[in-house]
Amino acid sequence: MRDWIGKLRTLLIFGSLVFILSGCGRDNLTALVPKGYGADISMQLIVLTTVIMTLVFIVVMILLAIVLVRYRKKKGDKVIIPEQVEGNKTLEAIWTIIPIILVVIMAVPTVFATFHLEDDSDAPEHINIDVTGNQYWWHYDYQNEEISTSQDLYIPVNTKVYIHLIASDVLHSFWVPSLSGKLDVNPENVNTMYIEAYEEGVYFGKCAELCGPSHSLMDFKVVVVSEEEYDQWVADMQNFDSDDLELDAVAQEGKELFEEKACLSCHATDTQDYSAGNVPIGPDLTQFADRSRFAGYLEPTKENLVEWIKDPESLKPGNLMTGSYPELTDDEVDKIAEYLLQLKPSEVTAESKEENS
Ligand code: CUA
After folding, report:
1. Index of the ligand 1 atom closest to the CA of residue 218
2. Is the CB of residue 182 below 6 angstroms from any atom belonging to ligand 1?
3. Which of 68, 88, 269, 304 has the highest local Cβ count within 10 Å?
4. Could you tell me the pTM of the whole model?
5. How high is the mean pLDDT of the chain?
6. Is the CB of 172 under 6 A from ligand 1?
7. Is the CB of 167 under 6 A from ligand 1?
8. With a 6 A CB cut-off, is 215 part of the ligand 1 pocket?
9. Do 108 and 102 touch, CB atoms closer than 8 A?
10. CA angle 112-114-21, nearest 5°?
């Protein structure tokens, strides 16, 4: 009976592992398929350490097997005390020096890679983006382009992009597994890293530091586009003015409600200048309808948006929007949602990249 339970347990563990691990292979979500410079370096270090550890394991196992087979007590053998090697200087030197050499082989490239990835001396020649982590969303400020957005971070392919990270409230951690390693986002100081993506496409990003009840929903995307598309996107964002939109009657009413009901006091719908580190209270919604997600993980459908405006707390516990605006009727929510879904400044979107990749 016990045997049977043991077998079942093993089967269940391995069975569930198959399901869990098969999720790890999802495109652009794993550090094991690097598509950017930092992730590439991390992968080389992972391979190096894994090879060394595996070799050590194999050698130790072979020695252990030899000792167990060759020197075990056989029938009829006398009971003897084997030769004692305690204090043997040669042996002790060997098993001290070998691990030191192995640790040095792993440490030297790791230290070099760390310093290399941290070096931002050529930052002024490249794209610089201030990224602010907030509970539970990301704000992006493109320093030279003078545009701001949130949720989807647009960058050109094969280009160094410097990310300057700061938090407005608590600790967060910026992590795009396929493109680079994690970097802490602190309220006190700016941490800088650069990312360089090798392939166009949409990459998953996560907050990797427990920051509150909705930490796991603080997702974002990095949308890697061609250089031409990037220029196009920047121009579209710079030139977008929500007052120029041709809205139908419902959306127009929504726009007015958006102002009346105090939405506008936290959310901009045009490109704003947030320079000098002024981060809006809520995400900038300039390209709301172009986004791949909103609130970190929700698809920008009318249904989701209506549900969100009605009760953000049920979808993202602990967010700042809950209770910060007057009660809205179903009709008003519907109109505001209609309006937000008109905010589409550019043809260059995450969706257009997903179709290509
Ligand atoms: Cu921000 Cu976890």
Report:
1. 1
2. no
3. 269
4. 0.83
5. 88
6. yes
7. no
8. yes
9. no
10. 115
Closest atom of ligand 1 to 136 CA is: 1
Find all residues with CB under 8 Å of 159, minimum gap 6, and list them.
126, 127, 196, 227
N-terminal to C-terminal alpha carbon distance within the chain: 52
Segment 256-310, tens digit of pLDDT: 888 888 888 888 887 766 665 577 888 989 889 899 999 999 999 999 999 999 8
Instruction: Kindly report the protein residue whose alpha carbon is nearest to atom 1 of ligand 1.
Output: 172
* Backbone torsions φ then ψ of 284, nearest 5 degrees: -70, 130
Rounded average pLDDT over 141-161: 92
Give yes or no for residue 133 CB within 6 A of ligand 1.
Answer: yes
Q: Using one digit for the tens of pLDDT, what is the confidence trace for 39-92?
A: 999 999 999 999 999 999 999 999 999 999 988 888 888 888 888 888 899 999
218 lines ligand 1 (CB under 6 A): yes
